[in-house]
Write a structure and sequence with these properties.
Chain lengths: 180, 55
């Protein structure tokens, strides 16, 4: 679905930020790449939770935005292409259908220090009752199945948002969000 | 075996896992959606995980 969408953008020369992200031009995202690529992990649970609330996951989330703005562009074009508009509309419907029944999930994964680019990514800086951790960590090695320790499923969805630095203790984390 | 927590309140922001995980600096988190879970967990078992979704 991604590649036909990119081709539709190319056909009309439409290249906004979401095109750049979806096509994988951005060296940090490479969302459209089909080969193994770095997976982005976070030392902050709530950052990952917020990420999970992107409808359809990151790739589809951005591709849906791209299809929406492309359809707007096609509708406003001086020389509209009904066929291209229909194709993009169908791609959009398929993306929505593929993820319509999904809900956010967050995995807890234990990694080895050498699996990330910078060992400093594991450092924790305490600031009062909070602890500052790296929110976006590129894991450059495959992760064995035994390293997925836990998964939380938000079966009715999850409010989106990022709460910032996390509490310094587990006991506070268990109550997080109720008073802040 | 993956421990699975199920939360049915969208406003539940609490940390859902055990203290052992919270205190471990090498435990990191990955957020996604359930549609990708079977594929992720299947590919994890073959140690090729986190391939981009086949879109």
């Amino acid at each position: 679905m991604i590649h036909p969408l990119v081709a539709a953008c190319d056909a009309v020369g439409y290249k906004d930020w979401s095109y750049t992200v979806v096509k994988g031009i951005s060296p940090r995202t490479k969302l459209a790449h089909v080969d193994n690529r770095p997976v982005y992990l976070s030392a902050n649970f709530w950052y990952a939770r917020d990420y999970a609330t992107n409808f359809g996951g990151e790739t589809i989330h951005v591709a849906l935005k791209l299809s929406e703005t492309l359809l707007d562009r096609l509708a406003a074009a001086e020389a509209p292409s009904p066929q291209l508009k229909d194709e993009v509309g169908e791609i959009r419907r398929r993306m929505i259908a593929a993820t319509a029944a999904s809900f956010p999930i967050v995995y807890a994964v234990r990694v080895d220090p050498e699996w990330v680019d910078d060992p400093k990514d594991f450092e924790r800086q305490h600031a009062g009752s909070l602890v500052i951790t790296e929110v976006n960590i590129s894991c450059v090695r495959p992760v064995p199945s035994s390293r997925i320790l836990a998964k939380v499923e938000y079966v009715e969805g999850a409010e989106s948002g990022y709460l910032g630095p996390q509490p310094s203790t587990w006991h506070e984390a268990r109550r997080w969000g109720r008073s802040n | 075996m993956i421990d699975i927590c199920t939360i049915d309140d969208p406003r539940d922001w609490s940390y859902p896992f055990e203290q052992e995980l919270y205190d471990d600096p090498f435990v990191l988190y990955h957020g996604t959606i359930s549609s990708y879970a079977p594929r992720i967990e299947r590919e994890v078992s073959s140690q090729v995980l986190f391939r981009s979704p086949s879109t």
